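Data availability (excerpt). All sequences and predicted token strings are deposited with the supplementary files. A representative entry, Tautomerase/MIF superfamily protein, is shown inline so that the format can be inspected without opening the archive.
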Amino acid sequence: MPCLDISTNVNLDGIDTDSIFYELTKAVSQIIGKPEKFVMILLKGSVTLTFGGNKEPAALAEIVSMGGINTEVKRKLIATLGLILENKLYIPRTRFVLKVFDTTMGRQLSKL
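Structure token line:
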């Protein structure tokens, strides 16, 4: 069940967030290979956030998934999610940071 949590200093009042949720959900589902019905998106706006010492539009995101993450998936997520945020919230891709976690990485399989 992938969960994408995005915090941005952009004010979301008056912005069509439904279309953002739709595009983010579809992108995460397709890239990670999990059904849309299991994708969770959190979008928090007007967060006190600086990047490079200034308060120009920026975003910090974290995605957690149970499997489906590899180097190629990470690259696609960064590029695709960055493009969505750039197109919808005018956040430059150079001011978007994505942390990626796969809860199954490093897990030792039990022999029970």
